[in-house]
Design brief:
With about 375 residues, the chain is an alpha+beta fold. The chain contains eleven helices and eight strands. The strands form two sheets. The protein has a four-stranded mixed β-sheet with strand order 1-4-5-8. The chain has a four-stranded antiparallel β-sheet with strand order 2-3-7-6, with no helix packed on it. It is globular, with a radius of gyration of 21 Å. About 35% of the residues are buried.
Length: about 375
């Protein structure tokens, strides 16, 4: 048995032994559009994982991880999804900020922030998008300035669509720290606590009736001067590196979830007779083919922007197909006042898939300009 197979067998056995008792009730809970489900229970589960060394498996051993290889990380995420284990609550800290600090942080920052991420003691959110700078991240207006004595950054501005900010204790914020700078220049990557004065978090009610996105207002919010990752003014480079980590190996576990959704939808089509419609049958087959292609591309290491375009369009399309399979019943709420079934929630929330984590329009520009070398889009 290879080391990867041994690693896969180890995590599979551990999940079978520990997703029991109170944790068994968490199977399948949480995830996009359902982050409100059993949050405290999922937090307790993830801290249980941490106590047994199963968080941050891809991090170096000296930083609290297992030093797992790429293939072992793939095995971990696949087995986790196959076990129907609950959606992770520490994804942003573990998969985005942690790798960013390991690559670009000071030793002081690593010692301060990495251990609480490994232990799931501090949760993080991402302060990128703004009302006037959603997909156009370089147009951020949130400002950061050093206090007169140089000991703190003072942050003013607004972020929006900030996932799980209402549960987080910290936010990594892209802010403009050089007055008069434009676009990519003059930005800094600041680590800002959310539990201090000068910060207000307002949940945004979504189409699903839930609120996992938030507005975050900074009004004289303060953080230590040492809490800048990289050099001041170098925030764009750091922020782009974080986006690369965001679209990394953990998305392979996401595809296991996609497979489960396709299987369940195909079974529903067989049960309710929708499979007899040749158009429905053709769309199910095409969705299966696209899912196979997606998985093959991910294992080949497809460019993150290409991968994002692929899975976002596929998942949104699956939501639309689910409505066709469900038929007229899909237009009626399951209960009062606004209770949705899983397929309705999938359809509504997947409308956001082609927007968050980099909109389709921006991803297409990246592919055209950076991968294919086409002329840049005209910009005002």
């Amino acid at each position: 048995m290879s080391s990867v197979e041994e690693f896969r067998a180890e995590i599979r056995a551990w999940l079978a032994d520990h997703l029991v008792g109170e944790f068994a009730e968490l199977r399948g809970r949480g995830g996009p559009g359902r982050e409100h489900e059993a949050f405290e229970g999922r937090l307790a589960w993830e801290r249980h994982m941490a106590a047994h060394g199963w968080t941050c498996v891809g991090w170096p051993v000296e930083r609290g991880g297992r030093g797992a290889s790429l293939d072992e990380q793939i095995a971990f995420h696949e087995e986790y999804a196959l076990a129907d284990a609950p959606a992770r609550v520490n994804h942003i800290g573990e998969q985005l900020l942690g790798p960013t600090l390991i690559a670009f942080g000071t030793e002081e920052q690593k010692q301060r922030f990495l251990p609480p991420i490994v232990a799931v003691e501090e949760l993080w959110c991402q302060g990128y998008s703004e009302p006037d700078a959603g997909s156009d991240l370089a147009n951020v207006r949130t400002r950061g300035a050093l206090s007169p004595d140089g000991s703190q950054w003072v942050v003013d501005g607004q972020k929006i669509w900030t996932s799980l900010a209402h549960e987080a204790q910290w936010c990594f914020v892209v802010a403009r720290t050089e007055p008069g700078s434009r676009r990519h220049a003059g930005l800094s990557y600041l680590l800002v606590p959310l539990d201090r004065s000068g910060v207000e978090v307002r949940p945004i009610v979504q189409l699903t009736g839930t609120s996992e996105f938030n507005e975050v207002f900074f009004d004289g919010a303060r953080t230590d001067a040492s809490h800048v990752v990289g050099e001041p003014g170098d925030g764009w480079r750091i922020a782009m590196a974080t986006l690369g980590f965001e679209r990394g190996v953990s998305t392979l576990g996401q595809q296991v979830g996609f497979r489960r959704e396709w299987d369940a939808l195909a079974e529903l089509a067989r049960k309710n007779g929708a499979i007899s419609d040749p158009l429905i049958r053709d769309r199910l087959v095409q969705a299966w083919i696209d899912l196979e292609a997606m998985a093959a591309s991910a294992r080949r290491g497809v460019d993150p922007s290409v991968g994002k375009l692929h899975w976002a369009a596929w998942h949104r399309g699956l939501g639309e197909l689910a409505m066709a399979v469900c038929g007229a019943a899909s237009t009626i709420a399951a209960g009062e006042p606004y209770e949705l079934d899983d397929w309705q929630r999938l359809f509504l929330f997947s409308r956001a898939d082609t927007i968050y984590a980099g909109s389709d329009e921006i991803q297409k520009n990246i592919v055209a300009e950076r991968l294919l070398g086409l002329p840049k889009e005209a910009r005002v």
